[in-house]
Amino acid sequence: MVAVRGAGLGRPVVRLFSAAGVETGSFLWEKGGMAGWGWSAEQELVIVEATGKVSFYSLQGVRLPKELTFGPEVESEGVGAVHIWPDGIVLMSALTQQLWASVGLREPRASRLAPVPGVTAGAPSAAAAAARPGTPGGRDAAAAVATGTGPAPLAGVTSAQLAVIRPEESLSLCLEVLVAAGGAVWVVDERSATDQRLPPGAGGAAALAVAPGGGFVAAFCEDGRLRVFSSDFGRIISEFDTSSAVAPLDLAWCGVDAVALRWEGLLLLAGPYGDWLRLPASGPMALVSEVDGLRVVTEATHMLLRRVAEPLLQVYRPGSTAAAATLWDARDLYDSGSARADRLLREIQPQLQEAVEACIEAAGLELNVPRQRALMRAAAFGRAFVPPFFPPLLMREAARKLRVLNVVRDAAVGIPLTMPQLEALTLPVLVSRGAFKGCLGQKRVGGKKV
C-alpha cells in the first residue's frame, strides 16, 4: 500500500506499508507531478510522472537503478491518462491522445500503439476509417500514420478511460488496450484500432474494468447503466440500472462474481442476476480486484469482499443436508463419544469421498484457523472409510498450503492471501519474492525455518 502526504510547503513524502498497515519504508518525492502509480509483479513501486518518466522503488523506499521513458513526444505533451498492471504500463499523451505501452517491467521498453480514429491527432475520423477499403462497417479501422503536420486540438475529446486485456488473457495473445472516448469503446493494439460499438442509447462509457482472467468487461455507460460484455464485446452478459447520472469514482471487479462501483459515501456491489448490496464508503478508499474477491483499503481498514464459496455453504448453511455437513456433524458426534457418528457415516457412504473433498476444499477457503483444523479433522475422519483410490496426497498438499497461508497472513508478514490467490500466484513465486523472504525472518513454515 502507498500513501502520499504533503509536508507543509515542502515536497510530499511517499510512505509504503504492508497489507497489515506496517510501514516498510518512505522517501521524499523530489520530482514533478505524479500521473499514476502501482505495483509490479516483482513487488516494486512504479511511479509515472506527469512527463511520462517512470521510476521504480523497492518496498523499503529505495530507488532502483532501472527507469523508463516514453520519449520526447510524451515528455513535451504530458500524460493524459495512465493504467498500470503488474507487468506493464499503458499511457495516453495529453495533447495528441497517442497511446504508448510497455509490456514487461523487468526490462521495460516503450512502444507506440495504433492511433485511434477520431481520438488520436492525425488519425482519420471514425467515419473516414469506415469508408476505407478493408474496413466494412467501421468495425476494423486500420491504423493510420500521423501526418506530421503537428498536433491539433481535438473537438469533443475531453477525457478517455483506459483498461487493459493482458497478453496472456487476450485471444490474440497480444496486449489489447480498451479506450473509452467520444461515445465509443476502441480495442487497440500495435497494429489496429477496432471500434466496439455500444448498444443504442447507452452513450459513451464513463468507466471500464476488465475481469480477472480477461473474460468480461464491465462498462458504466452514460445512461446510468452498468453493462457487462464478453471480452470481444459480442454479447451483453448482464445489465444493471444504477439510476445514477454521476459516473462512479471507481469501478472494479469482485472476483468474476460481481462488479463494485464507488461513489462518495457509497460502495455498490452489483451481481449478475440483478442482485445488489450497498455498503458505506466514507473517506479515501482504494479498490483492488482479486481472482476471488475485492480488497477494500481505507485509512483504517483492509477488507476482503468475496462470494461465499460452495464448499463453505455445504458445511455451514443452516439446515444443510449436503454430505459434507453430515460428515462435519459425524466428526462432532465421534468426538463426544456418540454412536450416532457411525449411523451418519453409513448414510453418506455413497457420497463419502465427495464429502471428504468438500471438507478439504472448505478448509482451504476458510480464514479462521480453528475452523480450518475442525474441517481437516472431519476430512481425516471420513478419509479412513473411503475407497483406497482416493488421492493420497490431497490432504497433505492442502495442509502444507494452509501452513504457508497462515504464516504469511500474520500481521508481522502482512501478505493476506487466500487459497485461490495462492494457486494463481503459485508457491515458487511467493517464496521467491523479496518481500516474503525479508518479512518472514525466522518464521517457521511446516516446521522449517524460511
TrEMBL record:
GO biological process: endosomal transport; intracellular protein transport; vacuole fusion, non-autophagic
GO molecular function terms listed in the Swiss-Prot or TrEMBL record: actin binding
Domain of life: Eukaryota
Domain Vps16 N-terminal: 10-94, 177-387
GO cellular component, one term: HOPS complex
Protein name per UniProt: Vacuolar protein sorting-associated protein 16
Organism from which the protein derives: Monoraphidium neglectum
